[in-house]
Design goal:
Layout (H helix, E strand, L loop, with lengths): L2 E11 L2 E12 L3 E5 L6 H9 L5 E9 L2 E2 L5 H7 L1 E4 L6 E5 H11 L9 H14 L10 E2 L5 H15 L3 E5 L7 H14 L5 E6 L3 H5 L4 E6 L2 E6 L1 H10 L1 H6 L8
Parallel strand pairs: 3-10, 3-11, 6-9, 9-10
Antiparallel strand pairs: 1-2, 1-4, 4-5, 7-8, 11-12
The protein binds adenosine-5'-diphosphate and magnesium ion.
Adenosine-5'-diphosphate binds next to helix 1.
Length: about 250
């Protein structure tokens, strides 16, 4: 089955259970949004999918096209087609964007195959144009001194260059003004394809005005408490998160 599938996942950190029986499937070609209040475990889910070592999966499974990725190292997952855009991207002083991305693209090629510099730069500049990033950007150190918007744009540039099968975007909208938000959303929309599944994590409905999701899931207390179409996001925006905390008192699928 071509989907990213999370089955009854339980995740603990520092002896505290953060993800408490989460089940979700993102078929290839679809965009699924996860919305939820702060502290509900959205970033934890993103990091567990990517393979962050601090989080302990106590039970459940994460399958990519039928293969359990929880047994794979983070770099293996990335090469297999998982991509995570961080909520808080790291700065890498001394490593330029051009060199960083080149190493990342090279690492995905079969052993012994060399990335041609001219091909690489042609592709890089094409993707940068798509994201309205000035060329001078490539010679700056990764995220060092970047504005919030520049950092997020850089995450989407990585996504564009790496061609993953499934991308998890963790609050790619946070810290963006409306113009930067539109550029990022245009970038993501232009990458939508039958070959890419997207899990779009957001706190606010605003992003979903620009990246219209196929499905919306609401996460509270480490579980999906409600799923629907894009109208669920509008309902949530209107009624606020207190609505799901109170009216949806008992989560489904316990
Ligand atoms: P969200 O992204 O939905 O705001 P997070 O996944 O960041 O939520 O956090 C969920 C809960 O897990 C919070 O209570 C947070 O304090 C806790 N948590 C997350 N990461 C850690 C960590 N590294 N150590 C201890 N607690 C953590
Ligand atoms: Mg978060």
């Amino acid at each position: 089955m071509n989907q990213l599938e999370i089955q009854d996942l339980h995740v603990t950190i520092a002896d505290q259970e953060i993800i408490r029986g989460l089940t979700l499937a993102v078929p290839k070609g679809e965009v699924h949004a996860i919305m939820g209040p702060n502290g509900s475990g959205k970033s934890t889910l993103a990091k567990v999918i990517a393979g962050h070592p601090d989080y302990v999966v106590t039970s459940g499974a994460v399958l990519m096209d039928g293969e359990n990725i929880l047994e794979m190292e983070p770099d293996q997952r990335a090469r297999a087609g998982i991509f995570l855009a961080f909520q808080y991207p790291s700065e890498i002083p001394g490593v330029t964007i051009a060199n960083f991305l080149r190493a990342a693209v090279q690492a995905r090629l079969p052993e012994g195959e060399e990335l041609e510099a001219t091909d690489y730069y042609a592709e890089l500049y094409k993707k940068m144009d798509l994201l309205e990033m000035p060329r001078a950007f490539t010679s700056r150190s990764v995220n060092e001194g970047f504005s919030g918007g520049e950092k997020k744009r850089n995450e989407i540039l990585q996504l564009a260059m790496l061609n993953p099968k499934y991308a998890v975007l963790d609050e790619t909208d946070s810290g963006l003004d409306i113009d930067a938000l539109k550029v990022v959303a245009n970038g993501v929309n232009s990458l939508r394809s039958p070959n890419l599944g997207v899990l779009l994590i957001t706190h606010y409905q605003r992003l979903l005005d620009y990246i219209v999701p196929d499905h919306v899931h609401v996460m509270v207390g480490g579980r999906i408490v409600r799923s629907g179409d894009k109208n669920l996001a509008l309902e949530l925006e209107e009624k606020g998160y207190d609505w799901v905390r109170t009216e949806i008192a008992e989560p489904v699928g316990v």
